[in-house]
Amino acid sequence: MKISFENADKVNGLLTITVEEADYNEKVEKTLKDYRKKANIPGFRPGQAPLSLIKKQIGEHVKAEEIQKLVSDTIFNYLKENNIQFLGEPMPSAKQEEQDLSKPAPYTFVFDIAVAPEIKLELTDKDKLDYYEITVDDKLVDEQVDLFASRAGKYEQVEEYQAKDMLKGDMKELNADGSEKEGGIVKEGAVLMPEYIKVEDQKKLFDGVKRGEVVVFNPKKAYPDSEIEVSSMLGISKEQAANVDSDFAFHVLEITRYAKAAVNQELFDAIYGEGAVKDEADFRSKIAEGIANQLVSNSDFKLLQDLRAYCEKKVGKLVFPEEMLKRIMQKNVKDEKEVDEKFEASIEELKWHLIKEHLVKANEIKVSDDDVLDAARLQARIQFAQYGMNNLPDETVDNYAREMLKNRETLDGFVDRAVENKLVEAMKKVVKLKNKKVSLDDFNKMMEEDAKK
């Protein structure tokens, strides 16, 4: 086999492979003999058909497959062994001449290679970046305490209606004079939340209503242009609801209110485990510590974004094999217009990808299976914390994390996250960081501004 590689320029390469019979013949023969052992061909005992017959039936197909595998392996091995960083995938060249595999070797295959531009970048303590440490103030702790209390709350029966309460009762259609309509619509056990009535004067009719009292209101006026809500409330079809414009008497039988849990030892034990928290001050301290730990990932993400912008500016403009990259993109999308629309954004992401790879290599960063699992564990804990589940056993978190990693797409995402986590930690030791304390509101505003750029 002969292999040659030449550069038309710094980012476009041409790889030529000439395949001789000796390069593939042994594997072809072995595949045919293995097939013969299992072949069940009429007129011959199983495994006893002549090899010449097997070659006549599938020889050309097997030969083509083996050559294809050989060429594919050769391309990637050559690029790897010769440290040629390529983008996308090798593509058949316009210089490729048609090869007739039914004729004797040699066969010549020519591929265009998109070569990655060289990254020249070195970071030291002379490079300075801001690091935003998000402060945990009383407002954040109060919000989390309120969230815990809300999630641990329960529904209670009360005597008098307040905003956001749920009413349950019987509804009866009325005549224009306010009397009960004979043969009219009756809905027993109707459920209503007046807070969500869209028209204010209809909503106010329920202010301060007590259990056992009757409220007269008009569903059609309460929910104009919403036949679905009227039909659901009255238990009738949308078509019937479209023709209902009567007042209804709502006899309130139950008033249900969601009450937050008291901030006491019972709540402390439910959130952090029995005896883990002594009093409310300790409870708030643990909440503040948990929030601070969660916010570190926000600060690190901001640092990564700023590192990207800083490095891209320092590297400057890179020359890419644009024509070749567009060919690769066109292979994976149906609409050429989509290639043009997404091309610039793809180049920007590719530039950052190459810079990131350069930094990972320069800082000898390696990611293990445990690093990927740690990234999944962190995400699992964040997700559980959103539902007030802060004291889960490590085994539960591990099991959830491992389940997430079973999905190939999710796994790739966590591998990227593990690489970025290690990169951020490495860069904290390389560049000079200027710590800046900032509130969460101000931090979020900064992130919103960054997103607009």
Brief digest:
The protein is α+β, with helices and mostly antiparallel strands and 453 residues long. It has helices at residues 21-38, 51-81, 138-151, 200-204, 219-222, 227-234, 238-242, 265-272, 280-315, 322-332, 336-362, 369-385, 394-404, 408-430, 440-452; strands at 2-9, 12-19, 91-92, 107-114, 128-134, 154-157, 166-173, 186-192, 214-217, 248-259, 432-438.
Task: Give the tally of β-strands.
Answer: 11
- What count of helical segments does DSSP give? 15
Cα gyration radius (Å): 35 Å
What string, H for helix and E for strand, traces the elements in order?
A: EEHHEEEHEEEHEHHHEHHHHHHHEH
Estimated helix fraction: 40-55%
Strand percentage: 15-25%
Q: pLDDT under 50 segments (min length 5)?
A: none
**N- to C-terminal separation?**
52 Å
Structural class: alpha+beta
Describe this structure in words.
It is a single chain. With 453 residues, this protein is α+β, with helices and mostly antiparallel strands. Helices cover 51% and strands 17% of the residues. The strands form 3 sheets. Strands 6, 7, 8, 9 and 10 form a 5-stranded antiparallel β-sheet that branches. Helix 3 packs across helix 9 (280-315) and helix 9 crosses helix 11.
Key traits:
single chain, about 450 residues, alpha+beta, 15 helices, about 15% strand, extended
Write the topology of this structure.
Layout: E1 2-9, E2 12-19, H1 21-38, H2 51-81, E3 91-92, E4 107-114, E5 128-134, H3 138-151, E6 154-157, E7 166-173, E8 186-192, H4 200-204, E9 214-217, H5 219-222, H6 227-234, H7 238-242, E10 248-259, H8 265-272, H9 280-315, H10 322-332, H11 336-362, H12 369-385, H13 394-404, H14 408-430, E11 432-438, H15 440-452
Parallel strand pairs: 5-11
Antiparallel strand pairs: 1-2, 2-4, 3-4, 6-10, 7-8, 7-10, 9-10
